[in-house]
């Protein structure tokens, strides 16, 4: 696919904010950041949940979707792959029981949106949207729970802010709440949505989009924590051999 600098999404913006060289590596040069066991497991579980919300059924159906969705990349050995597969299956089993006991009116899952903003097109895919009593909706992003999340994280989340804009502008929904559903602890961390933040989110999208267009590489991120530190020509944290 041809690189289109006018097409923005959260992942591109996040990559640029983390490090312009990371953005260039993945989106301009179109190279791949290697999967890790955690990123691979997260993708497999997300795909299974997306399939389940599209075609709900019993636990056996959910686990069959998981098996179909399983990604083998990112694991060092077959044993490691099996260990993570079992972890994911356990998480999904517990989620399924929780979902039966706490049903929700899911109106969208893995829902794509796109809206125009000045010279850009802003796109994204939302994990889940529930209808709230009164007609507004709650936007939920599934997280595996590898990192702690609290209400401050939710309130300050650029990802959720962009998705809330997508829900309003592309899907014409009134957003009442945004949050994360933490799969490992079966906790929903959700806050009322404050549309006052929309202007700041759009300002950030514009400012980042302009820097991307100018290929402004005026800074580096934290190489020691970067997923491509062994591959990046600009890396300051390659393993010495
Ligand atoms: S290794 Fe360093 S310079 Fe390269 S993309 Fe990562 S943070 Fe940026």
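-> sequence recovered:
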């Amino acid at each position: 696919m041809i690189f289109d600098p006018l097409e923005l999404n959260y992942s591109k913006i996040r990559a640029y904010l983390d490090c312009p060289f990371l953005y260039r590596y993945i989106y301009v040069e179109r190279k791949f950041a290697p999967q890790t066991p955690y990123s691979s497991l997260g993708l497999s579980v997300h795909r299974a949940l997306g399939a389940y919300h599209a075609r709900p059924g019993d636990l056996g159906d959910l686990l069959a979707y998981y098996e179909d969705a399983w990604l083998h990349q990112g694991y060092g050995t077959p044993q490691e792959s099996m260990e993570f597969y079992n972890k994911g299956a356990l998480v999904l089993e517990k989620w399924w029981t929780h979902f039966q006991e706490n049903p929700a009116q899911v109106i969208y899952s893995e829902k794509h949106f796109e809206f125009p903003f000045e010279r850009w097109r802003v796109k994204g895919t939302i994990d889940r949207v529930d209808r709230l009593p009164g007609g507004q909706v709650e936007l939920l992003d599934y997280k595996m729970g590898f990192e702690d999340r609290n209400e401050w994280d939710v309130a300050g989340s650029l990802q959720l802010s962009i998705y809330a804009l997508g829900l309003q502008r592309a899907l014409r929904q009134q957003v009442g709440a945004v949050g994360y559903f933490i799969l490992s602890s079966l906790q929903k961390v959700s806050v009322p949505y404050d549309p006052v933040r929309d202007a700041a989110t759009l300002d950030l999208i514009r400012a980042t989009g302009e820097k991307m267009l100018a290929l402004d590489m005026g800074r580096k991120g934290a190489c020691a924590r970067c997923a491509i530190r062994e591959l990046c020509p600009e890396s300051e944290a390659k393993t010495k051999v």
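Residues 106-208 form a domain with the Lambda Exonuclease; Chain A fold (CATH 3.90.320.10).
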